[in-house]
User: What shape does this take?
Amino acid sequence: MKYEIALVLSSKVEDDVRNATLERVKNRVVKSGSTITDIDEKGKQRLAYEIQDMIEGYYYFIRFEGPEDAPAFIERHLRIYDNVLRFLIVKQDA
Assistant: This one.
């Protein structure tokens, strides 16, 4: 199955902390038995609404292929990462 994660990371942390968070997310995708096919980094952009007193965040789109239970596994871990403001995992059409 093909999936995509829309990920928004905090703009209040240093670059190395943000990169470490992105690496943790990528490792979690791989540990779910999935293969990352593409990462699209959109950079710092304005949020649609204020989240935790922030008006900007770093946007990433991670495309991957994996088993049907991979999104649930990844989502459990993304919920507890401090620097992840928002995320959405969607199944892509064939």
In short: The chain has a mean pLDDT of 94. The radius of gyration is 13 Å.
